[in-house]
Amino acid sequence: MNYEETTQAAAFIADATGFDTHDAALVLGSGLGDYAASLPDAVVVPYADIPGFPVPQVVGHGGSLISAPVGDGRILILSGRVHTYEGWEMDEVVFGVRAVIASGAKRVMLTNAAGGVNSSYSPGDLVIIDDHLNLTGRNPLLGANDDRLGPRFPDLSTVYTPRLRAELAKVFTDVGITPYEGTYAWFLGPTYETPAEVQMGRTLGADLVGMSTVPEAIAARHMGAEVAGISLVTNLAAGISPTPLSHDEVTETAARAKETFTAVLDAYLPIFVSGSGV
Ligand code: 8IG
Prior knowledge:
Distance between the termini: 39 Å
Strand order of the largest sheet: 5-8-7-6-9
Bound molecules: 8-iodo-guanine
Number of strands: 9
CATH architecture: 3-Layer(aba) Sandwich
Structural class: alpha/beta
Number of domains: 1
Shape: globular
CATH class: Alpha Beta
Order of helices and strands: HEEEEHHEEHEHEHEH
Number of helices: 7
């Protein structure tokens, strides 16, 4: 079922973009969605046109898939994602990532806005994800396994490929920011955590807390793609921040960090797409 729908979506993407294959993919998180608009010669395909694609219920923006030339290859960018807290099924949450991998992407960069738990971080910092904690009890691979997608018991020893993390760290340094690395804990949401839950996360090894990314990373590794992740710390998590959390704070910080985020992606994507290393 998943395999057929994924393959159909990939066939549609090849047809709609005019490119049989793509090299890599990028998922843009909250507040980071307009990066794709800056890329020249992009082909935009609304999610609503792609068979099987879940369409985010955000007023005025149903999300779109963008195909663009980058360096010596092509990238597919998912601008807009759906979350488990909105009531989407796991299969729907990972549909986009599966479709871009079926379209040829061998590497997937996942980006998100997240709460900072590590006290070294400040709002506006970018952090390279080095590992994750799945604290939700959900998993996109629950249920019968389709061996055409990947193995029954995927190894998750290196979800976030060390080589890609090292390349990103070098790019962070080159653009003049600290190459923080951190472990991302997936909480279901939609509530932000209580201070006690943030302390629990800290005790368990979390540096970041958020409501996305982990299911996509799992589905991508299942299919054999390599994964890189970047979190934008938009707020300090509850109990670490002296003030209550608000979505407005998140949006404002994302807007302020846009320049740095753009600088990192502009410098790194050609390397990421070529797969050749730094
Ligand atoms: I942005 O503090 C953002 N997303 N779970 N906690 C969780 N998700 C988030 C947070 C946060 N900030």
